[in-house]
Amino acid sequence: MQTYSHFLVTAFVGDRLQRHMPVRLTAFLVGSVLPDVPLIVLTLGYFASRAVIGYGAAYDRLFFHNPVWIVAHNVLHAPLDIALLAVAGCLAWRRERAWGAWLTWFAIGCGLHTAMDVFTHAADGPLLLFPFDWHLRFHSPISYWNAGYHAGLVACSNTWPTSRSLSTSASLGSRSGGRPPAGRTRSRRQAPDCAEHSAHGAQRHRVVVPCDASSHPAPAAGITRLRGVAQRVPLELCGRDGD
Q1: Consecutive 10-residue runs of the chain (243 residues): their mean pLDDT?
Q2: Which of 171, 159, 227, 229 is nearest to 5 (CA)?
Q3: What distance, in Å, lies between the first and last C-alpha atoms of the chain?
Q4: According to the model, what pLDDT value does residue 149 have?
Q5: How far, in Å, are 31, 34, 43, 93, 226 from residue 100 at the CA level?
Q6: Residue 21 DSSP symbol
Q7: Residue 188 φ/ψ, nearest 5 degrees
Q8: What's the confidence (pLDDT) of residue 92?
Q9: Contact status, residue 59 vs residue 46, Cβ threshold 8 Å
Q10: Rounded to whole angstroms, how far apart are CA atoms 209 and 156?
């Protein structure tokens, strides 16, 4: 799943949770994006080396077999690692350590990130039993980047967290202001007009996202996976793939 989608979904979930319990939102949001940061850094280094040397090792070979890449990518994706962080955070929280609550919510954010990744990667999701098993992955029937596994459907679903997050930001702003300013209170009779105005505004700024995966050629293996960890790059910059 795209890293920005992780952030937006977590922001939406955090806003809903705050209505029922205290949430360390900063830790929750950091946990939603930090698991992808090591792979982003390694990916940028991969492309930098290709620009200097002219050709580097195949991306798939590094992702699936290089120990540095495997550890970096799975240290905050692996369910066992995240569970260990959560337990440590809960124990510290019960002992009233200042960092206990922060670590707990950070682990929850990482866990939500991993849960979404497990079900949106067909063959390259997180290692389920890392560090004890370096090969076991869940083979999801859908993939956010592979057109052969309904990537178009996932691309359409990625528009949902964006719209919901914008709504969440608006609701947070309205709640933070407390009472409405004097002279700005609207009567019940004016509510339909406001709703109609909002509907026109939404129609005017609507963004249409193509959902038909069949209208796009199937991406090359390995290279298109970078969509979730770096900006999209032209395939011709990646040279040959697979070896």
Answers
A1: 92 95 96 96 88 66 93 97 98 95 98 96 95 95 86 67 55 47 41 42 42 44 48 40 42
A2: 159
A3: 25
A4: 83
A5: 14, 18, 32, 4, 34
A6: S
A7: -65, -30
A8: 97
A9: yes
A10: 7
The predicted-structure confidence for 35-48, as pLDDT tens digits, reads as follows 999 999 999 988 88
Is residue 144 within 8 Å of 152, Cβ to Cβ? no
Round to whole Å and give the CA distance between 146 and 129: 24
pTM: 0.66
| Of 14, 50, 94, the residue nearest 237 (C-alpha) | 50
Residue type, 118: V
Contact 114, 79 (CB under 8 A): yes
Query: What does DSSP assign to residue 188?
Result: G
Residue 60: both structure tokens together: 């798939």
65-94: pLDDT as tens digits = 999 999 999 999 999 999 999 999 999 999
The pLDDT score that the predictor gives to residue 157 is 63
| CB-based burial, 225-238: b 16+ in 10 Å, e otherwise | bbbbbbeeeeeeeb
Structure tokens at 76: 């905050």
For 216, the 3-state DSSP assignment is coil
Specify the 3-state DSSP secondary structure of 165.
helix
Query: How many Cβ atoms are within 10 Å of 129's Cβ, its own excluded?
Result: 13
Burial of residue 94 (CB within 10 Å: 0-12, 13-18, 19+) is: exposed
Q: Is 181 helix (H, G, I), strand (E, B) or coil?
A: coil
Separation of alpha carbons 234 and 210, rounded Å = 19
